[in-house]
Amino acid sequence: SQQGEEDPQALSIQEGENATMNCSYKTSINNLQWYRQNSGRGLVHLILIRSNEREKHSGRLRVTLDTSKKSSSLLITASRAADTASYFCATDRDYKLSFGAGTTVTVRA
Amino acid sequence: KAGVTQTPRYLIKTRGQQVTLSCSPISGHRSVSWYQQTPGQGLQFLFEYFSETQRNKGNFPGRFSGRQFSNSRSEMNVSTLELGDSALYLCASSLNRDRPYNEQFFGPGTRLTVL
Predict the structure, then answer these.
(1) The domain made up of A5-108 is a member of CATH 3.40.50.10230
(2) Could you say which residues from 49 to 78 on chain B have a Cβ atom under 8 Å away from some Cβ of chain A?
(3) Is A42 close to B42, i.e. CB distance below 8 A?
Protein backbone atom coordinates (compact mmCIF):
# COMPACT_ATOMS: atom_id res chain seq x y z
CA SER A 1 0.00 0.00 0.00
CA GLN A 2 1.12 3.54 -0.60
CA GLN A 3 2.08 5.78 2.26
CA GLY A 4 1.36 9.11 0.65
CA GLU A 5 -1.65 10.46 -1.16
CA GLU A 6 -1.39 13.46 -3.44
CA ASP A 7 -4.08 15.95 -4.14
CA PRO A 8 -5.15 16.90 -6.76
CA GLN A 9 -4.56 13.97 -9.11
CA ALA A 10 -4.24 16.34 -12.04
CA LEU A 11 -3.66 20.05 -12.46
CA SER A 12 -3.76 22.23 -15.57
CA ILE A 13 -2.43 25.78 -15.37
CA GLN A 14 -1.32 28.61 -17.60
CA GLU A 15 2.35 29.41 -18.00
CA GLY A 16 3.39 31.92 -15.36
CA GLU A 17 0.81 30.77 -12.82
CA ASN A 18 1.63 28.99 -9.58
CA ALA A 19 0.94 25.29 -9.03
CA THR A 20 0.22 23.84 -5.61
CA MET A 21 -0.11 20.20 -4.76
CA ASN A 22 -0.59 18.48 -1.44
CA CYS A 23 0.54 15.22 0.06
CA SER A 24 -0.78 13.38 3.10
CA TYR A 25 0.84 10.40 4.76
CA LYS A 26 0.03 7.96 7.53
CA THR A 27 2.99 7.08 9.72
CA SER A 28 5.95 8.85 11.29
CA ILE A 29 8.78 9.68 8.92
CA ASN A 30 12.46 10.57 8.84
CA ASN A 31 12.00 12.97 5.98
CA LEU A 32 9.73 13.69 3.04
CA GLN A 33 10.95 14.10 -0.49
CA TRP A 34 9.43 15.39 -3.70
CA TYR A 35 10.28 13.98 -7.11
CA ARG A 36 9.40 14.84 -10.69
CA GLN A 37 8.91 12.39 -13.52
CA ASN A 38 8.65 13.25 -17.19
CA SER A 39 6.69 10.87 -19.42
CA GLY A 40 7.53 7.55 -17.77
CA ARG A 41 11.21 8.27 -17.41
CA GLY A 42 13.33 8.14 -14.27
CA LEU A 43 12.52 10.22 -11.24
CA VAL A 44 14.33 13.46 -10.58
CA HIS A 45 14.83 14.52 -6.98
CA LEU A 46 13.49 18.01 -6.31
CA ILE A 47 13.72 18.68 -2.62
CA LEU A 48 14.05 16.93 0.74
CA ILE A 49 12.57 18.27 3.95
CA ARG A 50 13.48 16.75 7.27
CA SER A 51 10.90 15.85 9.86
CA ASN A 52 12.08 18.69 12.13
CA GLU A 53 11.81 21.32 9.38
CA ARG A 54 8.65 23.24 8.52
CA GLU A 55 9.50 24.97 5.27
CA LYS A 56 12.16 24.76 2.61
CA HIS A 57 12.89 26.63 -0.61
CA SER A 58 14.81 25.68 -3.71
CA GLY A 59 14.66 28.04 -6.67
CA ARG A 60 10.99 28.28 -7.71
CA LEU A 61 10.00 25.47 -5.35
CA ARG A 62 8.62 25.86 -1.86
CA VAL A 63 7.83 22.89 0.32
CA THR A 64 6.07 22.88 3.66
CA LEU A 65 5.75 20.07 6.14
CA ASP A 66 3.24 19.76 8.97
CA THR A 67 4.04 16.62 10.95
CA SER A 68 1.09 17.16 13.29
CA LYS A 69 -1.27 16.89 10.33
CA LYS A 70 0.97 14.45 8.47
CA SER A 71 0.86 16.59 5.37
CA SER A 72 3.15 18.43 2.99
CA SER A 73 2.66 20.82 0.12
CA LEU A 74 4.75 21.66 -2.93
CA LEU A 75 4.41 25.07 -4.56
CA ILE A 76 5.92 25.77 -7.97
CA THR A 77 5.95 29.48 -8.70
CA ALA A 78 5.93 31.14 -12.13
CA SER A 79 5.40 27.81 -13.91
CA ARG A 80 6.96 27.06 -17.29
CA ALA A 81 6.09 24.59 -20.02
CA ALA A 82 9.09 22.53 -18.91
CA ASP A 83 7.38 21.99 -15.54
CA THR A 84 4.84 19.72 -17.24
CA ALA A 85 5.39 16.40 -15.48
CA SER A 86 4.12 14.13 -12.74
CA TYR A 87 5.09 15.05 -9.21
CA PHE A 88 5.40 12.54 -6.40
CA CYS A 89 5.85 12.90 -2.70
CA ALA A 90 7.72 10.14 -0.93
CA THR A 91 8.12 9.45 2.75
CA ASP A 92 11.43 8.06 3.89
CA ARG A 93 11.49 5.45 6.63
CA ASP A 94 13.28 2.16 7.27
CA TYR A 95 15.56 2.52 4.24
CA LYS A 96 12.72 2.78 1.76
CA LEU A 97 10.69 5.45 0.04
CA SER A 98 6.93 5.11 -0.01
CA PHE A 99 5.42 7.08 -2.86
CA GLY A 100 2.04 8.63 -3.38
CA ALA A 101 0.06 8.23 -6.57
CA GLY A 102 1.33 11.52 -7.93
CA THR A 103 -0.07 14.75 -9.32
CA THR A 104 0.06 15.25 -13.07
CA VAL A 105 0.75 18.88 -13.87
CA THR A 106 0.17 20.33 -17.33
CA VAL A 107 1.43 23.83 -18.03
CA ARG A 108 -0.25 25.45 -21.02
CA ALA A 109 1.65 27.96 -23.11
CA LYS B 1 30.04 12.22 -12.50
CA ALA B 2 27.98 9.62 -14.34
CA GLY B 3 24.45 9.03 -13.13
CA VAL B 4 22.73 5.78 -12.29
CA THR B 5 22.72 3.46 -15.28
CA GLN B 6 20.32 0.63 -15.90
CA THR B 7 20.53 -2.09 -18.49
CA PRO B 8 18.78 -3.06 -20.57
CA ARG B 9 16.47 -0.10 -21.16
CA TYR B 10 13.77 -2.16 -22.82
CA LEU B 11 12.99 -5.83 -22.58
CA ILE B 12 10.28 -8.08 -23.99
CA LYS B 13 9.75 -11.51 -22.45
CA THR B 14 7.06 -14.15 -22.50
CA ARG B 15 5.19 -15.62 -19.55
CA GLY B 16 7.16 -18.21 -17.63
CA GLN B 17 10.56 -16.85 -18.58
CA GLN B 18 12.93 -15.21 -16.17
CA VAL B 19 14.72 -11.89 -16.44
CA THR B 20 17.71 -10.17 -14.86
CA LEU B 21 17.99 -6.41 -14.69
CA SER B 22 21.19 -4.58 -13.88
CA CYS B 23 21.89 -1.32 -12.10
CA SER B 24 25.15 0.57 -11.71
CA PRO B 25 24.97 3.25 -9.00
CA ILE B 26 26.70 6.58 -8.95
CA SER B 27 30.36 6.16 -8.09
CA GLY B 28 30.80 6.15 -4.32
CA HIS B 29 27.17 5.35 -3.57
CA ARG B 30 26.75 2.27 -1.45
CA SER B 31 22.99 2.00 -1.20
CA VAL B 32 20.88 0.70 -4.07
CA SER B 33 17.10 0.44 -4.08
CA TRP B 34 14.69 -1.02 -6.60
CA TYR B 35 11.14 0.12 -7.37
CA GLN B 36 8.42 -1.14 -9.65
CA GLN B 37 6.13 1.35 -11.36
CA THR B 38 2.83 0.35 -12.95
CA PRO B 39 -0.22 2.42 -13.93
CA GLY B 40 -2.38 0.51 -11.48
CA GLN B 41 -0.17 0.25 -8.40
CA GLY B 42 2.08 3.25 -8.88
CA LEU B 43 5.59 3.17 -7.45
CA GLN B 44 6.20 0.21 -5.19
CA PHE B 45 9.35 -0.51 -3.22
CA LEU B 46 11.01 -3.84 -4.01
CA PHE B 47 14.19 -3.97 -1.95
CA GLU B 48 17.20 -2.01 -0.70
CA TYR B 49 20.83 -3.09 -0.44
CA PHE B 50 23.71 -1.55 1.42
CA SER B 51 27.19 -3.06 1.33
CA GLU B 52 25.82 -6.28 -0.16
CA THR B 53 23.20 -6.70 2.58
CA GLN B 54 19.48 -6.51 1.96
CA ARG B 55 18.10 -4.21 4.63
CA ASN B 56 14.49 -4.00 3.60
CA LYS B 57 12.13 -5.78 1.27
CA GLY B 58 8.74 -4.80 -0.07
CA ASN B 59 5.62 -6.92 -0.36
CA PHE B 60 6.47 -8.85 -3.47
CA PRO B 61 6.41 -12.61 -4.03
CA GLY B 62 9.57 -14.68 -3.80
CA ARG B 63 9.84 -14.64 -7.58
CA PHE B 64 11.44 -11.24 -7.15
CA SER B 65 14.97 -11.34 -5.84
CA GLY B 66 18.03 -9.18 -5.91
CA ARG B 67 21.62 -8.92 -4.91
CA GLN B 68 24.40 -6.40 -4.63
CA PHE B 69 28.02 -6.94 -5.50
CA SER B 70 31.12 -5.67 -3.73
CA ASN B 71 31.41 -2.81 -6.23
CA SER B 72 27.84 -1.74 -5.27
CA ARG B 73 26.39 -2.76 -8.62
CA SER B 74 23.07 -4.51 -8.20
CA GLU B 75 20.92 -6.94 -10.09
CA MET B 76 17.33 -7.95 -9.67
CA ASN B 77 15.82 -11.12 -11.00
CA VAL B 78 12.25 -12.06 -11.69
CA SER B 79 11.52 -15.71 -12.29
CA THR B 80 8.45 -17.29 -13.85
CA LEU B 81 7.27 -14.03 -15.35
CA GLU B 82 3.58 -13.14 -15.27
CA LEU B 83 1.71 -10.61 -17.38
CA GLY B 84 1.33 -8.41 -14.30
CA ASP B 85 5.10 -8.05 -14.04
CA SER B 86 5.04 -5.70 -17.02
CA ALA B 87 6.29 -2.45 -15.54
CA LEU B 88 8.99 0.16 -15.42
CA TYR B 89 11.66 -1.01 -13.00
CA LEU B 90 13.60 1.82 -11.42
CA CYS B 91 16.87 1.65 -9.60
CA ALA B 92 18.05 4.36 -7.23
CA SER B 93 21.33 4.92 -5.47
CA SER B 94 22.16 6.89 -2.39
CA LEU B 95 25.42 8.01 -0.85
CA ASN B 96 24.97 6.72 2.67
CA ARG B 97 21.75 5.27 3.89
CA ASP B 98 23.06 4.81 7.38
CA ARG B 99 21.73 8.28 8.01
CA PRO B 100 18.12 9.13 7.29
CA TYR B 101 18.75 12.31 5.31
CA ASN B 102 19.77 11.12 1.90
CA GLU B 103 18.21 11.86 -1.42
CA GLN B 104 18.03 9.03 -3.88
CA PHE B 105 19.20 9.36 -7.46
CA PHE B 106 17.16 7.37 -9.93
CA GLY B 107 18.20 5.72 -13.14
CA PRO B 108 16.15 5.94 -16.37
CA GLY B 109 14.51 2.58 -15.69
CA THR B 110 14.08 -0.69 -17.54
CA ARG B 111 10.77 -1.08 -19.34
CA LEU B 112 9.78 -4.74 -19.10
CA THR B 113 6.94 -6.07 -21.23
CA VAL B 114 5.67 -9.59 -20.60
CA LEU B 115 3.67 -11.16 -23.43
Answers:
(1) no
(2) 50, 55-56, 58
(3) no
Task: Flag whether pLDDT at A4 surpasses 70.
Answer: no
Question: Strand pairing of A61-66 and A55-58?
Answer: antiparallel
> Looking at chain B, which residue has its C-alpha nearest residue A5?
B42
Nearest-neighbour CA in chain A from B90: distance (Å): 7
Q: What is the pLDDT of residue B99?
A: 58
pLDDT at B64 (0 to 100)? 98
Q: How close B32 comes to chain A (CA, Å)? A: 10
Question: Which residues of chain A neighbour B58 with C-beta distances below 8 Å?
Answer: 96
Predicted confidence (pLDDT) at residue A12 exceeds the cutoff of 50? yes
pLDDT attached to residue B97: 59
Chain B residue numbers with beta carbons less than 8 Å from the beta carbon of A35 are: 106
DSSP structural state of residue B5: E
Give B39-100 as a DSSP string. TTTEEEEEEEEETTEEEEE-S--TTEEEEE-TTS-EEEEE-S--GGG-EEEEEEEES-TTSS
Query: Are A96 and B106 in contact (CB < 8 Å)?
Result: no
What stretches in chain B show pLDDT beneath 70? 1, 97-101
